[in-house]
């Protein structure tokens, strides 16, 4: 675990690429908040606007942490500040309008037409700040007949064909373990915002960015999607195996599962001779090349499975490592998060929490100049920055904040300001 002093020293020396960029995050749930989190990781000041009472929907999803956070919320909201505003009130919208000139990016995932109805549409905010980068995340394309349909990861996994390519051949379609469509969309949104910021630095222009979950789901089908177009029908499903490379997948050793990833003919020869000690397999002309191995997988896979099943996992891993064959143990999730490899990489760090003392938070996966990007802020409690940020950015007085709290426009969870 990184000490507070070490973290402060790292932050003092690290040149954050987005330092000075401000992002107003009006989004909720997964894709939009992930976009904001990525930008925050690179140093942007991301201010998350939440409903005064309930906050982001995900504050009620997953395992409860403290009074207003959950595991789900914490996974998408590190390095941000939180302010509360009721955007169904004229005062809440007025405050957003007053904030916009001081921000470079706005992110939202309102239903189609919802931002315009509130007075937060692109044309309105662009008139306030002409070089604004405005990022919209929706379920479906804004120019199609389904524009008003709400977007949900699971629905799009089904509609885009992703569930049809996941799972074993004779099992029903299966969703991915995490919300991969939301994740793809959020990462794509962050990339688009970064590109727009770079473009604006050269030409001074703002941008309207739009992403649809459905489009991201189709993109995620990758080579499976192109296979389907070439075949004219759905490709076969192979579960933990690879559709084009054999042997490549999960196998059961005599004492547990492992991953075998034989990527070329030289590796296959070493695998047969040095690892499973079955030279007759590599000498069989049916298995001479990967194309032939894939074509004859029904004959090859049982032979490999039997040979692997007769040997202990650690011996197989040792032999494959010595032979230069990619391999690994199949770990449980808790095991993976707490193993020495993850601890050494500081991928999970304990951050201070005002109620429970500390809570684990994922660190960014990126390293810059040899250092992992730090967690500058733990995921915020609901509205923790309302008073400080509105006073700093809009010079609001304590009396104004108190009046807005009494009117239900915002909440000040650290207590009402003194009159």
UniProtKB/TrEMBL annotation:
* Database matches in InterPro entries: CoA-transferase_III_domain (IPR050483), CoA-Trfase_fam_III (IPR003673), CoA-Trfase_III_dom3_sf (IPR044855), CoA-Trfase_III_dom_1_sf (IPR023606)
Keywords carried by this UniProt record: Transferase
Pfam name, any one: CoA_transf_3
- Residues spanning the membrane: none
**Which EC numbers does the record give?**
2.8.3.16
Which GO terms of the molecular function aspect are on file? formyl-CoA transferase activity
**UniProt keyword Transferase present:** yes
The name on file for this protein is Acyl-CoA transferase
**Electron transport among keywords:** no
């Amino acid at each position: 675990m990184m000490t507070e002093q070490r973290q402060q020293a790292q932050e003092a020396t690290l040149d954050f690429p987005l330092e000075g960029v401000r992002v107003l995050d009006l989004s909720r749930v997964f894709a939009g908040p992930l976009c904001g989190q990525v930008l925050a990781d690179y140093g942007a000041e991301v201010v998350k606007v939440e409903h005064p009472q309930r906050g982001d929907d995900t504050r009620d999803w997953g395992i409860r942490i403290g009074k207003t956070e959950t595991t789900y919320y914490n996974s998408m909201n590190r390095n941000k500040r939180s302010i509360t505003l009721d955007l169904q009130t004229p005062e809440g919208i007025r405050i957003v309008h007053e904030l916009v000139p001081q921000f470079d990016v706005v992110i939202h995932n309102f239903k189609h037409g919802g931002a315009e109805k509130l007075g937060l549409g692109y044309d309105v905010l662009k008139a306030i700040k002409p070089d604004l980068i405005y990022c919209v995340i929706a379920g479906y394309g804004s120019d199609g007949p389904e524009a008003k349909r709400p977007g949900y990861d699971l629905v799009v996994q089904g509609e885009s064909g992703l569930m049809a390519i996941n799972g074993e051949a004779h099992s029903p379609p299966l969703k991915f373990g995490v919300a991969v469509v939301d994740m793809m969309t959020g990462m794509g949104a962050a990339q688009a915002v970064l590109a727009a910021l770079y473009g604006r630095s050269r030409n001074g222009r703002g941008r309207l960015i739009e992403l649809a979950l459905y489009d991201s789901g189709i993109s995620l089908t990758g080579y499976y999607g192109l296979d389907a177009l070439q075949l004219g029908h759905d490709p076969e499903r192979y579960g933990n195996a690879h559709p084009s490379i054999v042997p490549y997948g999960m196998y059961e050793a005599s004492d547990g599962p492992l991953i075998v990833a034989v990527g070329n003919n030289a590796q296959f020869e070493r695998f047969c001779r040095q690892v499973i000690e079955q030279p007759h397999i590599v000498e069989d002309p049916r298995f001479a090349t990967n194309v032939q191995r894939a074509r004859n997988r029904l004959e090859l896979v049982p032979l490999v499975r039997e040979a692997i099943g007769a040997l202990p996992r650690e011996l197989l891993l040792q032999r494959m490592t010595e032979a230069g064959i990619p391999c690994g143990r199949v770990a449980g999730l808790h095991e993976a998060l707490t193993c020495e490899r993850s601890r050494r990489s500081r991928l999970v760090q304990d951050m201070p929490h005002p109620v429970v003392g500390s809570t684990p938070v994922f660190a960014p996966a990126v390293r810059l100049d040899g250092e992992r990007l730090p967690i500058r802020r733990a995921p915020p409690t609901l509205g923790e920055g309302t008073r400080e940020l509105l006073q700093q950015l809009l010079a609001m007085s304590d009396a104004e904040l108190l009046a807005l709290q009494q009117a239900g426009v915002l909440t000040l969870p650290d207590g009402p300001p003194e009159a």
